[in-house]
Fold these 3 entries.
Entry 1:
Amino acid sequence: MPKPYPRELRERAVRLVIEHRGEYVTGYAAIWSVAAKLGIATAESLRKWVRQAEVDAGQRPGASSEEPADLRRLLVAVWLGAYWSRAGMLVLSGSWVGG
């Protein structure tokens, strides 16, 4: 699995694309140019970072960077609640045999 790019590099790349987008014919041309200059393996990675930054800034619809983490915490809490509820029911019913 490839190493993720450092956060500072991702932030710098996104900032450069946003700042210089008007100097290129298309937004993708700006993304491709910045990716090549900074040594980012694929322009698609940078495109996704730019889109996510736009979502986080409220400029584009979609799930913010914080929402998946919140959802993950909620799912873990629900799963743990169901697990401990089931474990408690087994203990109370006598189906669980301690050893």
Note: The mean pLDDT is 82.
Entry 2:
Amino acid sequence: MSHFYANIRGHRGEATRAGAKSSGMYSNTAGWKGAISVRVWYNNEKDEDCYAIALTPWHGSDGYSRVIAAGPLDASAPDAIDGGALWDENQRLREALAEAEVAIAALKKEGV
């Protein structure tokens, strides 16, 4: 019996796949400019199923990977990661880095 189960549907119909505790499951669904990657696995230490969802570049598209959500694969679990908060923090850090790079360039220009 499978521990994980997945189905996908496209213009050629539906396909299903099964995964074991030892293998977990991984999938990508992509467009021209990016993909959503979904991974599920069994965490032996916590004795629970887990998931992670990430937005990733796809075959030469610009951008960077970022986790949208992650946590226990349990619809009743309150402690999943808030992907919106992760996105906001990521953006804040990128803006701070850009400001620091501008300041460093100005200092270099002044010969400091």
Note: The mean pLDDT is 86.
Entry 3:
Amino acid sequence: MITDSFLRRRTARRRLASPFCRRYPLNDLSGVKADPDGERTINLLEAVNGIFKDTPFVLAHRALNEALLSVVCFNPSDDAQLQAVWDDFLMMKLLPRICPWFFPVTWS
């Protein structure tokens, strides 16, 4: 029967591994044309933290690490692509923290 073959199927365990990139090596940024030293990305996050100073939304160093990893992984070649990487990062990391704060979910 089909159910017997499904229930008795042999499976192999797979080990989960962590991502290859964990920290941004500065020499990896040298290949990024739009931000070869990461300074523009660092300035962006400092500006964002300046806006959210003394609030619970200030980004930590791990956010900087993730932003620079995104820049390395996407490897933007011009300003428009770099801004798209920044936009994705802010939409994934900052917006989910802010939206429930400003627009709380209410149940009726």
Note: DSSP finds six helices and no strands in the chain.
